[in-house]
Design goal:
Layout (H helix, E strand, L loop, with lengths): L1 H4 L20 H16 L3 H12 L4 E4 L6 H12 L3 E5 L7 H4 E6 L4 E6 L6 E5 L6 H4 L3 H6 L1 E4 L2 E4 L5 E6 L12 H4 L4 E3 L6 H13 L14 H11 L6 H16 L9 H17 L7 H12 L13 H11 L17
Length: about 350
Amino acid sequence: MKEMIAPKFEGSSPGRQEAQPWPEPPQVLLQRLIHRIDHVLLGKKETVTHLITAMLAGGHVLLEDVPGVGKTMLASACARVLGGEFKRIQFTSDMLPADVIGGSVWDSRISELVYRPGPIMANIVLADEINRTSPRTQSALLEAMEERRISIEGETRKLPEPFVLIATQNPLSYEGTNTLPEAQLDRFMMRLSIGYPSMENEARMLEQYAAGSRPEPHQLRPVLMLEEWLRMQREARLGHVHPGLLEYMAKVTDATRRSPELELGLSPRAGRDWLRAAQARAYVEGRRYVLPDDLFATGEVVLTHRLNGIAAGGRRASEALTRIMRTTPLPASIAPASMTGRHR
């Protein structure tokens, strides 16, 4: 355990330039950022923390929930506190790929075709009701989500940095929806649900509306500059991960591929996203090393939506994943016997 708690990662290699010190510890800035968003959403700190963790890890998020619980508000608030550009795409059945990524239009002033950027060209993009559009239009997002670029008429254009896609879909069986293909689901680092507010928070929200004091996302002031956010992303990826934890993760992913309860196991991309999310969570907590709790806290939201094929047995993917994580023991070199196999 001591080897994991005090890893030798902070020292710089010969000739490596030291980064400028932070005016405040990064975790203080991140907690302030989370608090400001939670002040708008009310009572959803855990969901907000998961979203910030995914964004810090460079991942995309799928919000699956009923209408009216604050999905658009959450995405807009995140963009405001980061000082980035926010754009929203309302997906409909008649949308075309060019409506997302843009296209070439004729400019009569210069007698040439010029590129007109689509709404995908922003730091935070909300893809509202993504499953209402056709698979053809959904496919326009695949390259953007993985390679952070788009291809238009043979020319490749990079997306702005940072870039994160927050997509929403309704879990109810509404008419005119299309199931997201496995390849696209696998590109979302996390699937989250906001849920209804508690009675106390809903009463507080109504009081704010009645008094005209309800805070809105556009009123939020940035906590970080984009350059600071990009630096945090780089630092989070340097978080130390004990080899025993990597072994545990590999055993879990392999077990999902062998489980008779699952038709489709976890991909290597899923393991990579799990690792990045755990590193980001440790960074949010003010640590530069990953603990088993970081894996347990991020495992369900990162992995469950990728296990979308259940064979005979009738168990949901989350139940199968929970069983696998509980029965896969942590190596004795990183955890006492009482923690081995623990999952919360």
